[in-house]
Amino acid sequence: MYDKLISRAKLMGISLEIFSLKLKEYTISKEKFYVPENVEKIGYGIRVIDDKSRMGYIYMKKLDENTLEQALKISKLGEPDKANVLPQKQPINKMSDYEVNPDVIKDVMISLRELEENVNLTTISASAINYEVSIFNTEGVEVREKRGVYLVQAVASKNTPEVYEILVSKDHKIPVNKLKENLLEKIKIMENRERLEGKRDVVFTQKALNELLSTALPKLFSARSFHKGTTPFKLGEIINEGLEIIDDPLDSSLPFSRSFDDEGNPSKVVNITDKGQVRSPLTNSYWSVKLTIENTSSASRQLDSIVPSYTIPPSIGSSNIVIRHNNVESDIEDNSVVVDQLEGVNTIDYSSGDFSLIANVSWLNEKGNKTGLKEVMITGNIKQLLKNLVSSSKDVENYGKIISGKLRVSDLSRVRP
């Protein structure tokens, strides 16, 4: 059906893209009871660009003879825009197809269940997620790739706020013991909480950085935001001379690695900042043509999940976000407020970068003594946060989309409730 639809589109003088997603996911979860679940899905996203440069998009679970006509009807509702283009065929350095093993999940759940001996478990779950992405278009793009990741989650408390840990990994040797140790340590710290007194530097753990920056950075550094003025950053400005922010889809060990983006463009490493200078906005085909700049192959169809969605056309997103600072400390937490878990990240104002968030899991570290803090309001601005970033820890870790050490920030506002 792919070939038939693409041949028809060429004869009609229109551009056609068929995005296909095949998903196989095995999950075991427990709230009150253990629930195993097998999910298998297949879906298609159809993008057409008609002879007037109008774009139409539809999605369906099965291709049929009327697919092209349905998408063309939608395109007639759009506005002509010469930047509506599909990518041309380009050479791709294909990573090896990768799948995870669902059999691993049972052992992970047995291990997670041991947490019940020490804390009140709200929920635990483990998933093996395998999916295949295929993209075919009238311009010659024909790409296909199998990808797989494990997702492990645990939420627990013990006379404390709920503390969670997640793990997204491609490694068959899932480091579940480390997840458990982190969860138990943080719950123990938070059992006795005090109010924060005085002004301290703030250290963000990798988990807090993932909450704060994994969604924000692609929005703040997208070509669309620079063009529309909906970001506090400016191209060419120096934020922090010691800071590097990199989008790296090519490290095959990381969970969001990919050979091509969600339009079929070959993946590339993007230095968003270099020596603290804003160098490259993230782009997809539309915005690279619109602004006549390099296409960074940052087309994304993710809806706050691991797996791309066939229900939406591509926008701009990121893969694995690497954050480095040239000042590295071994005792970065000393004499600081350590923020590990945040509430309210959906309220961040991306136009200004302003945020006001509750740090519901945080502690004061004084010479290695960790004292849990009652909910602390963290207010500030992401641009100012990056400017005031003074150091990184040696322990670089991958948490969600973020690969970083813990980051220490000075002069960040904190307001007690």
UniProtKB/TrEMBL annotation:
Source organism, top-level taxon: Archaea
UniProt-recorded name of the protein: Peptidase U62 modulator of DNA gyrase
Under PANTHER family, the record lists:
METALLOPROTEASE PMBA
Q: Which GO terms describe its molecular function?
A: metallopeptidase activity
Question: Which organism is this protein's natural source?
Answer: Saccharolobus islandicus (strain REY15A)
Q: Where does it sit, as one GO cellular component term?
A: cytosol
Which GO terms are recorded in the biological process aspect for this UniProt protein? proteolysis
Residues of the Metalloprotease TldD/E C-terminal domain: 198-413
- Kindly name one Pfam family recorded for this protein: PmbA_TldD_3rd
